[in-house]
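User: Second chain of the day. Same drill as before.
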Amino acid sequence: MFAVIARRLRQPIPGAQPRVRFEMPPELGGDDSAIDDGEAPFGSPGPRMSAQHPLYIGFMGTAGVGIALLLFYIGTHTAQLLLWIVTALFIALGLDPVVRWLESQKVPRPAGILLSVGVLAAGVAGFFATLIPTIVEQVTEIVRQAPTWIRDFLDSEFFRTLDSQFGVRDRISEELDKFVKNPDAMGGIFGGVVGFGSTVANSVFGALIVLVLSLYFLGALPAMKKWAYRLAPRSRRPRVEALSEEITRSVGNYVIGQACVALLNALFAFIVMTILGVPFSVLLAFVVALLAFIPLVGGMIAAVVVILVSLTLGWQTAVIYAICYFAYLQFEAYFISPRIMQRAVAVPGAVAVISVIAGGSLLGVLGALIAIPTAAATMLLIKEVFIVRQDRH
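Assistant: Same format as last time:
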């Protein structure tokens, strides 16, 4: 009985058509025209669209413009994040020579990374822990003495002459009354205070992000390099690896060398200011250290700032400081920097100046800092790739 039922189920229903199933076409060597119209139920496919077809060109052009706009949108809305990434990568490249030296001393890389970053963080924290109370004290002293300086200036013969000729005192009083009675101006002051607080909070958050990213980049730097080298063709990987290692080595040595030069510069300025009795010497030494990180022009800007403050003690003090500091800059340029930077980058003076100005215009202080390593890497690539290719032709 079961056999009869099974046989009846296997028989097709009268009038039913077999279901069309999707099957892969036979292998015909990629020639679509070899499929016979009689064998293919839907006929043979037509010719492929040419790359010169207007519809193809228009679609690909539209897609390219859309991708470019998307990348522009992402870049403009993540500029701060990109800046943090560049800063962290720059710090990682600067600490990598130290980590590699520790590795040569039989220290495991993870321990070397923690040791180098820990020493850096402890040094920065200790520096600011010592500096911030002094800065607060000296800024408070400036605020306390500001009324006396203003009163002495108002009582001076120079201001009395200006007031008698142009009525400066009445004009200043009138503008102050307008400012106090203007609610928008007072609201602007409150908004400025709130904006300053948010800027400080964002700076602290950015510093933490940069520190964490520096740790990740420093730990994954060898793997990142190997992954990047795999993007190059196999026949050119040894050359790409050699050029990349030379660039990263030069950048790391430059960061360490520039930090040493800046610290020596600030230390010398602090000693001279302490001997001459220049006010706010600790705060000014911190400013000198920051400006000295900017190559070529940073020392000159720091000299101008300290000289202007030294004028409060008289032109003799300013002249003595200017002579001592500019003499040190010459000594630094001809003796200190060549020995510290002998394993770092070497860039012609004109190219260095143009690079620093362009980097500062694009990315501010960070752009000025990475301008010379970027210029050195570009010159190395031009020398080893473009000029070699041109010589072969």
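The longest helix spans residues 183-229.

User: Great, on to the next one.
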